[in-house]
Design brief:
The complex is a heterotrimer of chains A (about 400), B (about 150) and C (about 250). Chain A is mainly α and about 400 residues long. Helix content of chain A is about 70%, strand content about 5%. The longest helix of chain B is centred in the N-terminal third of the chain and has 27 residues. Chain C has two domains: about 45 residues, no CATH class; about 200 residues, Alpha-Beta Plaits (2-Layer Sandwich). Chain C is built from seven helices and ten strands. In chain C, the strands form four sheets. In chain C, strands 8-1-10-9 form a four-stranded mixed sheet. Chain C has a two-stranded antiparallel sheet with strand order 2-3. In chain C, strand 4 and strand 5 form a beta hairpin. In chain C, helix 2 runs antiparallel to helix 6. The chains are: A mainly alpha (about 400), B mainly alpha (about 150), C alpha+beta (about 250). Strand 2 of chain A pairs antiparallel with strand 2 of chain C.
Chain lengths: ~400, ~150, ~250
């Protein structure tokens, strides 16, 4: 194997790089404008209400935060578990992780009722709150992954790489456990309140993070006119297949448990059979697009060497993942809480016992898309400033 | 050494530049709005220059006591500020202290601060506002909290 | 003392009963003197764990078509609507139920249940949701960042988020855009020594008297006597939150 050189990301022409960045910048600008609009008017201009308290921005935010910790996996495999093929990808892996987390957090913070009080969230901690723990986990993630990236780039500190890599790996597991526990620890709602939420989110992060990694890697190498070998992509592809299967297994276990418990039959029926849009999102979005299509593309011999099949499979995993989180976050709120077991609510001043409809608005979507744009823009700028991408990834 | 001396000197000029107009503004105005209760009084609940300089700290200090511990009737109370300092129009209706030229806005506008207080707190005197007709407020004579304590002991 | 449960074993109850006066004198009295000395003579003693405020709602007495308590609450706290029922604040609501098996119909009002172990307080990242020493669960709007996690966590859907900018709020309930809020058990009245909530007052005026407010820790209070002599339930009792609001004939 020839010696590996990392180089800053330069495109064929400067215009190509700056145009790409300008495109991302315009998405970010639109998203920030949307956030200002929502904060200025108050949340009534969004689709969110007193019933659906977390909406589309939270779906985007959780999706990005979960993907962020998963994007770090390639680096972990490279330096912690010693996979030589993954090693050259470690720098990009940690840069992408930082970018995705920043994008997700931006969306989350800009949707707060009082984003101007972020300082309160950083100075007042309730240690019984998973959210407060997540504030620590998220800021710690930036610090640890930042140091990890440093040990990978700077030779003078390279000897700490393995130690820091271990720390980063455990921290990312903790982070996703924390994110999953936001839902796992909610006793009130039938869709949540399950310990399996935390490990399921960890597995989901493996899958989405890797899919994000593959897509951005291919895109960056096309953008920068660099060579990307099939061997490495095939490795990544096979790994993605395993993760997609694992998510499917956890989904099965979660739903089987709920199907056994009579009390949870209502929510299961809602998601699996007659929940309308949520049922469609589950079966068509998560299961068909997010699991069956990518598994077919990954394991079918017909697409063994096809780079497009890998790209399409990764995009499908991301779309399916988005729907999965949508069903968890919004479907879980749309299904009515059972305050009065054995009773039917025939009149209520506050939508008790009714399935709540939620129609996301354009500003919410714009804010969410801006989160993705922030992630990608940070990667683009980071790759331009630091030596992140190997000059070539030929086999 | 020399460079730090120079920068210190500049800093002093800069601060003086900020402070002198501010001090002048303090000195010149004995500013309360006409037609407010405050206009007829000698001083605020504490010496006026103390209140001017520190009212935000006094209010912020008391808010946790009231909201979290239920201690009411503190010496410094935002609703009392407003009751006293809001001016009244020709019909005797209280005006908002945050509208243009009124007591709170005039000074906050001058020093370019926008306190968050009035996003939640009422800016007009209590008067006949909805929900206040029962008058369940602490005023100078109410010791109801203490009375209740005494009842319980008996 | 502030964390002690009021669901005590008999032994502990006796023990505390014997020492509560002494403890009260030691811990409450210095507080009174301290605040009286430093804050002028007007300050009240503040919330004390000698009390636990709660309510009993008699489902049988909750009259069909009546909205007196809801109106009174809206008026007391100036919860004006904006003709947007999905985002308008609701602190108290009437609910009509039908038993799926027997067809028996019930009516009752739901509001913040002022739990002893409130999930909203557990999940709040900034301690903005909190429980006063006298058991009233409140939102400190000086700290609320509007994350709505408490609304996700509340098993009773008791909380509302302020979806728009407000002006001319009531002095009884300062409230504003971007913060979460819920029933305060008329804490402004409690602190002023008026032992009657707006909803109870309105219900009584209507002649229904379906709501009783009072001190759950005082064995001689009306609420304690009613609860001792009648079978009452907590909504979602399975969560063991020990709610301060109890229901009769549900």
């Amino acid at each position: 194997m020839s010696k590996l050189y990392y180089r800053e990301l330069y495109c064929g022409t400067p215009v190509r790089f700056w145009m790409g960045l300008a495109l991302l910048g315009s998405f970010i600008a639109i998203g920030l404008g949307a956030a200002y609009y929502m904060e200025h008017n108050g949340h009534w201009v969004t689709g969110m209400s007193n019933q659906i308290v977390w909406g589309l921005p939270h779906v985007f935010a959780i999706f990005l935060i979960v993907a962020a910790s998963g994007a770090l996996n390639v680096a972990s495999i490279g330096s912690v578990f010693g996979g030589p093929l993954y090693k050259p990808l470690g720098r990009f892996s940690s840069l992408l992780a930082i970018g995705l987390l920043a994008g997700g957090l931006m969306v989350l913070v800009l949707d707060l009722g009082r984003p101007d009080r972020l300082i309160v969230a950083m100075t007042e901690y309730n240690f019984k709150s998973i959210f407060a723990w997540n504030v620590i986990l998220y800021s710690g993630f930036f610090a640890i992954v930042g140091v990890y990236l440093w040990t990978m780039i700077d030779r003078s500190v390279a000897r700490y790489k393995r130690t820091v890599g271990f720390a980063a790996f455990f921290w990312r597991i903790a982070l996703t456990t924390g994110t999953g526990s936001i839902f796992g620890f909610l006793v009130a709602r039938e869709a949540y309140d399950a310990a399996i939420m935390a490990p399921m989110f960890v597995i989901m992060s493996f899958s989405y993070g890797l899919a994000f990694f593959i897509i951005t890697l291919i895109a960056a190498y096309i953008w920068g006119d660099r060579e990307l070998g099939d061997l490495r992509l095939t490795r990544l592809k096979n790994l993605l297949g395993v993760f997609v299967g694992a998510v499917l297994y956890f989904t099965l276990a979660y739903n089987l448990t709920n199907l056994y418990v009579t009390q949870h039959h209502g929510i299961e029926r809602f998601v699996l059979l007659d929940g309308g849009i949520y049922t469609q999102m589950f079966w068509i979005g998560q299961i068909l697009i997010g699991s069956i299509v990518p598994l077919f593309l990954i394991y079918s011999p017909a697409f063994e060497k096809s780079r497009w099949a890998i790209a399409v499979a990764s995009v499908a995993v991301l779309i399916g993942g988005f729907f999965q989180i949508y069903v968890i976050v919004i479907g879980g709120q749309a299904y009515p809480m059972n305050l009065f077991p054995g009773k039917e609510v025939i009149e209520s001043g506050f939508y008790d016992g009714q399935v709540i409809s939620y129609m996301p608005t354009v500003p919410e979507a714009a804010l969410g898309i801006a989160g993705i744009a922030v992630a990608l823009a940070m990667v683009a700028v980071g790759a331009r400033v630091f030596k992140v991408f190997p000059e070539t990834l030929e086999d | 050494m020399r460079s730090s001396l120079i920068s210190n000197r500049y800093l002093i000029f800069l601060l003086a530049g900020f402070f002198i107009p501010a001090m002048q503004a303090y000195g010149e105005s004995a500013y309360v709005t006409e037609n407010s209760k405050a206009a007829s009084m000698d001083s605020c609940v504490a010496p006026t220059d103390l209140i001017r300089r520190n009212h935000m700290d006094y209010l912020q200090h008391g808010r946790d006591d009231t909201v979290r511990d239920g201690i009411r009737g503190l010496k410094y109370s935002l609703s009392e500020c407003i009751d006293c300092h809001a001016s009244t129009d020709a019909n005797g209706e209280g005006l908002s202290v945050t509208s243009e030229g009124e007591f709170c806005q005039a000074c906050h506008g001058y020093v370019a601060v926008s306190p968050a207080c009035f996003q939640c707190h009422r800016t007009k005197p209590v008067g006949n506002a909805k929900g206040n007709s029962l008058g369940y407020r602490f005023d100078e004579h109410s010791h109801a909290g203490l009375d209740r304590e005494a009842d319980h002991e008996q | 003392m502030s964390n002690k449960s009021d669901q005590l074993s008999v032994k502990r109850r006796q023990f505390i009963g014997g020492t509560v006066a002494a403890a009260g004198a030691l811990t409450i009295a210095p507080g009174v003197i301290l605040h009286a000395a430093t804050e002028g003579d007007k300050a009240s003693a503040g919330a004390s764990s000698e009390y636990r405020w709660g309510m009993v709602i008699d489902s049988n007495k909750c009259a069909e078509g009546c909205s007196a308590c809801v109106d009174a609450c809206n008026n007391e706290h100036d919860l004006e609507g904006h003709d947007r029922p999905e985002t308008d604040a609701v602190w108290i609501r009437a609910v009509k139920l039908k038993d799926k098996q027997t067809g028996h119909v019930n009516r009752l009002v739901m509001m913040c249940q002022h739990c002893e172990h409130p999930p909203c307080v557990d999940v709040c990242p900034t301690n903005a949701s909190f429980k006063r020493d006298d058991g009233i669960v409140l939102v400190d709007r000086h700290r609320c960042i509007g994350c709505r996690y408490c609304m996700m966590a509340c098993p009773y859907k008791a909380r509302s988020f302020v979806h728009e900018a407000l002006t001319d709020q009531s002095v009884n309930a300062p409230r504003g855009k971007g913060c979460v809020e819920s029933c305060t058990l008329c804490v402004h009245r409690v602190d002023a020594g008026v032992m009657q909530t707006a909803c109870q007052e309105a219900c009584q005026k209507e002649g229904h008297a379906a709501i009783i407010f009072g001190d759950l820790k005082d064995p001689n209070s009306e609420i304690s006597r009613v609860l001792k002599s009648h079978n009452s339930v907590q909504i979602r009792a399975d969560l063991e939150l020990n709610t301060g609001v109890r229901y009769l004939n549900l």
